[in-house]
Design a protein that fits this description.
- By secondary structure, the protein is mostly helical.
- The protein has 3 domains: 1-42, no CATH class; 52-108, no CATH class; 110-140, no CATH class.
- The protein contains 6 helices and 4 strands.
- The strands form 2 sheets. It has a two-stranded antiparallel sheet with strand order 1-2. The chain has a two-stranded antiparallel ribbon with strand order 3-4.
- β3 and β4 form a beta hairpin.
- The longest helix is centred in the middle third of the chain and has 25 residues, at 65-89.
- The two termini are 37 Å apart.
Length: 140
């Protein structure tokens, strides 16, 4: 199968624009069905990369095996919950955002932890409420 994003009629050397794929299989299916089946499976690397960069599943914080196993389970649970949140609550344009981008755009706001009258509170900037409402409205 070959495909290109640019019309070959509009450039001088169209041979450089084509991307080729080959799939060897024993299935007796149509070419399109085989391509859809294997293309769906090929997305696993993207999920691994997202979990690695978004939730640091490649880092171990303890010398204890059981503690690391529990922490990895919690990280993967958090990643699965994020996938569920993106699928259920976010608009299609925002669903493709990475975990880092969602964290920066929706959850991180600068603030100062202050103590006044023996109570702790967080002071947020004046624009924080407006910005969070805009981003939440764009996401949901």
């Amino acid at each position: 199968m070959r495909h290109t994003d640019i019309d070959p009629q509009e450039c001088l050397c169209a041979d450089w624009l084509w991307e080729y794929e080959a799939i060897a299989t024993t299935f007796d299916w149509s070419g399109e069905d085989v391509w859809h089946f294997y293309n769906f499976r090929g997305n696993a690397e993207n999920h691994i990369k997202e979990a690695k960069y978004g939730f640091a599943i490649d880092r171990f914080s303890s010398q204890n095996f059981d503690a690391n196993k529990a922490l990895q389970g919690l990280k993967l649970l958090a990643y699965n919950l994020l996938l569920l949140y993106k699928h259920v609550a976010l608009q299609p344009g925002v669903r493709q955002w990475t975990a880092g981008r969602l964290r920066r755009r929706l959850f991180h706001l600068p603030g100062i932890l202050v103590r006044h009258a023996r109570q702790w509170s967080i002071r947020l900037p004046v624009y924080a409420k407006h910005r969070s409402l805009i981003m939440l409205h764009a996401a949901t």
